[in-house]
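Protocol step 6 of 9: fold each sequence in the batch and record its structure tokens directly after the sequence line. For illustration, a two-sequence batch is reproduced in full.

Sequence one:
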Amino acid sequence: MELERGLRVLTGRARAVTITLVLFGAANVICAAGVLAALAAGEGFGDADGYISGVLGLGILAIVATAIASVVAVSLWIYRAHANLRATRDESFEHSPTWAILWFFVPIANLFKPYQAMRQLWNDSHLQSDGYTASGPFEVKIWWGFWIAGNFATRLFFPLGLLLFVVDAYFLYRLVSAVTQAQTHEMNASYAFA
């Protein structure tokens, strides 16, 4: 009964992730367009005219608000997805539901541990073996690649980083959808007949 409830919660959280990622992507596109418009007009951020400054200001506020909403929604989804894995098996997992989230906030470790936690989540949800020798699936690799690239690009050329985060949000949406579907179909069926 615990898994059935967990799967319903996961599905609801996946919907919340989808909504926040769409809003985050839209905010990034609007802000990137505003920055590019200011640069095309030959203006820096500080001397942009009122309209461009307004768009930039609103875009940055929208990015911050939707980023916070996305972090909360994705964190809740990651926690529930990892907790569902634990509900189906007695084996120990390398990443607890809590640490699967906290790794994003630990300096240095946040460059590789979140990827490992998501790889484990993907592989175990799709009933594949996971371990250090397990290959990371394409969806997890591409999501993580754009996440890292977006973080670095934002510091080098802000509009490029924003656009990379839009692509990253798309691949995160695909990853969330695929894991949610795997848990609600494949994993649930294997648990029911175990």
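Sequence two, same batch, same settings:
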Amino acid sequence: MQTVMLEFATADLAAMGVIPPRFFDRYEEVELLETLRLERGWRLQLLRLRRRGGLRSAAELERESRRIRRLYGLTDFELVERRPRTRDYILLVRQKNPASLQALIDLAGGEISPTAPFRVGERTTVATFRAEERALGKVLSRLRRMELPFRVLRTSSRPTLADPASADLTGRQRETLARAWTLGYYALPRRITLTRLSRLTGQSPPALGKMLRRAERLLVARYLAAEPIAAPPGTGTEE
């Protein structure tokens, strides 16, 4: 698998219908934290949305949910967290794919996914996609034929399971740890509960807790093996 990071003029994406009209009247930027599912016709994503001015309460968002869905073309959305200090919402969003995005997905045979870093600002958009090299080549060729100006910022290969940094973790463990970190499960104070996190991973709280503990155990064991902890001064090492 490879990733490619591209830069676009946001106005060009708005003209294609990727960004809703007048989106930046209310918001400063939107950042993709994770694509949870990408299917034909729709996608499920975790987003960070920075608002201009103060945040609305969860109750206000609930009352206006129908208007919000209609305005931004959402099938559904869920407020995961409010961050008043930074004026951010963390949202779980189910949204129809615009025709231009769906065309690229179809071209790649479904083997392409938007991934972080993916940040849409008022002037520029940084978009990252992950796919097999051949599929990415097809997508880039199509973008050039569409005469959509873009700049390639970076290309890279995805780490393999042989990578020492992830050798002992399964793919699902790495994905779950990354999601828990992004949503603030390891923050102090914790920003999301295990129960709430379990809803976003499709696992029961006990099963999720066991998976996280097993992953944490592997990481701690690896750290201790690499960095032995010295005994405190004045203590013996014998039992």
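Proceed to step 7 once all outputs are recorded. Observation for sequence two: Residues 171-226 form one domain.
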